[in-house]
Here is the input.
Amino acid sequence: MSMRSNMKTVRISIIGFGYVGAGLAEVIRRKRADLVSTYGLDVRIVGIADLNGIFIDEQGLDEAELLKLRTGAKDWERPGGMTTLELIKELDYEVMVETTHTDVTSGQPGLTHITTALESGRHVVTSNKGPLALEYSRLTDLAAAQGCALKYEATVGGAMPLISLIRDNLAGNGVLSIQGILNGTCNYILTRMAEEGLPYEHVLKEAQELGYAEADPSSDVKGLDTAVKLVILANSVFGMNATYRDVEVTGITAITPDALKLADDAGYVIKLIGEVSREGCLKARPRLVPKDDPLNVGGTLNVATIKTDLAGDITVIGKGAGPIEAASAILADIISIYR
Here is the structure.
């Protein structure tokens, strides 16, 4: 029997229409036929809110118009002076996707967006690490109390299916620890420094020119981004109720070409490794990794090794960043709500 006879319309709002939000609109456009034929889902974007303005259409925003919005060929509107919070509360839809910028000190504006959506009885899918790193248990308790899903696969490892792999495919296993490279910017910098013998400042500038590093790269290179992702794993996998202040963090800014050369001569590479364990270990720091270890991946790749009591070690490698990669994780989360 075709799933089409059992079609479900899923209306979503996207809050934050930067790289990831726009990437999701593109992914939904590309996958529309598959969503219908494979999952029986007619996914419609009915609202978009951004600092620039708001677009709403309860029948589903036109894909050609969305494309114009992404490319800057269409100006933003703000119907009736509507605010983002009004859209979240008042629009008729089922799933809010929150893709605004991460702020790990306040969690805002994402924290208010997510809380408002859950209080309004909407499912939430997010790529925003800040709210989960600060208020994980409050948000998950609120979602449970409201009977809503709160999904966040895209917050850790981009396209790598890490959280869902542990929850679904490794169900029944006791997870002992997770360790890996969770920041592509740092991995790119260390890989280039090791391959070319170049100093840190030179490679950082190159990474910025290529768009792998932000104009202000401190969150990445000081290890904070890795720490925040570890906190989400600590809370969601190990039930720790940690915040990023609980992580022991050392970044990569002090690593020299000489240190990388010494490691290389001894059969190692230096990588920024995040580690979280059942015993409460929470560390993000440069570590010596044997060259033949699965954690030795190059460029902007992310990798994680999950140590389990039954299945042994499982290693996942994937793209940790990129709008389409992050959007793939968000789309998987939306589908999982209705599976």
Q: What stands out?
A: The chain has a mean pLDDT of 95.
